[in-house]
Each structure stands twice: as C-alpha cells, then as structure tokens.
From TrEMBL:
Keyword terms of this UniProt record: Hydrolase
Database matches in InterPro entries: AB_hydrolase_1 (IPR000073), AB_hydrolase_fold (IPR029058), Epox_hydrolase-like (IPR000639)
Ribosomal protein keyword on record: no
Keyword Hydrolase: yes
Family: Belongs to the AB hydrolase superfamily. Epoxide hydrolase family.
Gene3D superfamilies associated with the record: alpha/beta hydrolase
Pfam families (alphabetical): Abhydrolase_1
Name the record gives this protein: Alpha/beta hydrolase fold
Domain AB hydrolase-1: 27-95
Gene Ontology MF terms: hydrolase activity
PANTHER family linked to this entry: EPOXIDE HYDROLASE
Superkingdom, natural source: Eukaryota
Amino acid sequence: MEEHGISHRTVEVNGISIHVAEKGEGPVVLLVHGFPELWYSWRHQILGLAARGYRALAPDLRGYGDSSAPPSVASYSVFHIVGDLIALLDALAIPQEPGVIEADFDRLGTESFLRMVFATRNPGPLFMPKKAFVPLDRQIPLPDWLSEEDISYFTRKFDKSGFTGPVNYYRCLDLNWQLGAPWCGVKIQVPVKFIVGDLDLTYHYPGIQDYLHRGGFKEDVPMLEEVVVMEGVAHFINQEKAPEITDHIYHFIRKF
C-alpha cells in the first residue's frame, strides 16, 4: 500500500515492538482491528480519512502481523492492549488450551481458514470440521470486496506470525473480567456511534439485539448517539462497505 502513500513504522512500546500504518496530517484517528485481521483491514479508511484532513493510524495489535507476539497468555489482557495503544499514541506525538486451536488452523491451512472466515455469510457460529478436512484454498470464492492480492497479504502475515497471539486475546477473557472488576457497572461517558451488519454473527448472540435496541446499551453508554444496522452486511464491515464506513466515521468525528 506504499504506492498509495501509506507509510509504515515500528514503535517500541511497553517492551514490545508495534507495527503501525499511517497517512495524513491533522487530528489523529486510531483504527483498531479485530480477529483474524491486521492494520490492512483499515486500508480503505486510512486513505479516505487522510483525504479529509485526518491523520489515520492503524496498528497491528500485539501478536498480529509485524508486531511482537509475547508468548504468555497473560500478556494479552485488556490492560496490555489499552496500554499499548496509549503508549503508541504518546510515542507518535473462548478459552482454549494453548496449541489446540492453532493445530486446527494449521490443518486447514492459513489461506483456507482466512478465505472461509472472510467469505462466510452465515450469522451462526463458524464451524471447522475436525476430521477428514481437505484444505480448499482457492476453491473458496472470495467476496467481491476482497481481492486475491488482499487475501495474499493476510496469508503472508499470518504465516509469519501464526495465530497464537491473536487467539491469546480470547484466552485472556476470564482474566480481563477479573482485572476489570473494580469498574463493574461504570458508565461509558464518551460519545458513541455503533455500527453493525445484520449478518454479523455477533449481532445474533442470544439477547444482543434486545440489549442494543431496547435500552440496555443506552443505559450503559448514556452518550450513545446512534445504532446503525446495515442490511446484508456481515462481520468485516469496514472492508465490505468501505466507503460507507469511512463516511460514518468522518461525519461522526467531525462534530468534535
């Protein structure tokens, strides 16, 4: 993506190296990816926001891509992640036994797994067969918003870093609850706009739609301004509907 003016650097924070992609001048917008993604998932928004007068930053979180991958599960708590992001900004003025799910990913093959995840339109749980699985690779068609070049980039980076770091975020869920106990019940007192696709599997977790649309979310986040549900859109919304998401982000942050 260097040909589009996106620059890359590695920043030393909290004893690890964090890779960050950036473009633009002006107020900073920090874009944080999920699983199984990379800074690259925000490539469209980086370009769109930079063109509108913002400095867009998108790191590879610890354990992902070109960032360091500490071996300890406990190194992936929410405090580590928030600490990394704060330190990064400052510097720039399903529990599983370790190895089990990684072995499943290895058996599927990195590209097969990523193609399956990115292409899924089923809002139910992702199913990975444990027996007699033959890697499908290019037999799995890509959605029209993801090119062969895109999937090759993701595959190269996950082949390099592996999946242990990314999965450790999920292994740390119980620890995060323990660490966050002192803040149980605290309201989130910042302006929020929430966007989700109606085919996103997280939108179909039991009770989540009632929580989002019948007052529970607003009670916990008093400054919630809007919940947007995009029809026919799945989990990787910032890639699938790149221009629309860039517009949503821009029109929201420009108010501040």
